[in-house]
Design goal:
The protein is mainly beta. The chain has two domains: 65 residues, no CATH class; 105 residues, Jelly Rolls, CATH 2.60.120.10. It contains one helix and 17 strands.
Length: 193
């Protein structure tokens, strides 16, 4: 990217929220946070939800060594990404602690999650954008912005976006085990049962 992006008068290429001061021949890419540089040159700096990388341009190929270290030290960054894409949309793991996890979930128009249940976690869903049809046990409800629903452990549930725009919700999971493998699917549009 550093080679193909348009450069400023100091030879810098940048994307996102970036402030450069006395910086030369440097590539800076920000996805979310402001990156400011002062008095540096010949660097590659990238920021994502998962990590920040700062490397000299001559050493970029050594990123593989960092990945190998992450794997050797069994770091979660080597296996998991904060934002995970699924056929129905994506989820972003916002926060995690002992016995809880918070995700921002985006469901594409016309898409739906599998009809599923969990053995070890309950979920609280808070709608923040759009409208969804939610199956929660024997009930089917229309969930709109600023409304919420609670799904106890063991209750069969599903979420569907019947709208023309993305549906977004905040999901708060709580329980003794919060792994992605605690999903029992009964029906799935995407062949994952």
């Amino acid at each position: 990217m550093a080679d193909i992006c348009e450069k400023d008068e100091s030879g810098n290429a940048f994307q996102g929220d970036v402030l450069l001061q006395d910086t030369h021949n440097t590539y800076v890419r920000s996805e979310k946070k402001l990156i400011a540089t002062v008095g540096v040159e010949d660097l590659i700096i990238t920021e994502s939800d998962d990590a920040i990388l700062v490397a000299h341009k001559d050493r970029v190929q050594d990123v593989k060594k960092i990945v190998d270290r992450l794997k050797a030290e069994n770091r979660t960054e080597a296996k998991l990404h904060r934002k995970v894409y699924r056929p129905w949309g994506a989820y972003d793991s916002i926060d995690m602690g002992d016995r809880f996890q918070v995700k921002r979930i985006t469901v594409k128009p016309g898409a739906q999650l599998s009809l599923q249940m969990h053995h070890h976690r309950a979920e609280h869903w808070i709608a923040v954008k759009g409208t969804a049809v939610v199956t929660n046990g024997d009930q089917e409800i229309l969930l709109t912005e600023n409304q919420s629903t609670y799904i106890p452990i063991g209750v069969v549930h599903r979420l569907e976006n019947p709208g023309k725009f993305d549906f977004e919700l905040i999901e708060v999971q709580s329980g003794g085990y919060l792994g992605e493998d605690d999903i029992v699917r009964f029906e799935d549009t995407y062949g994952r049962t």
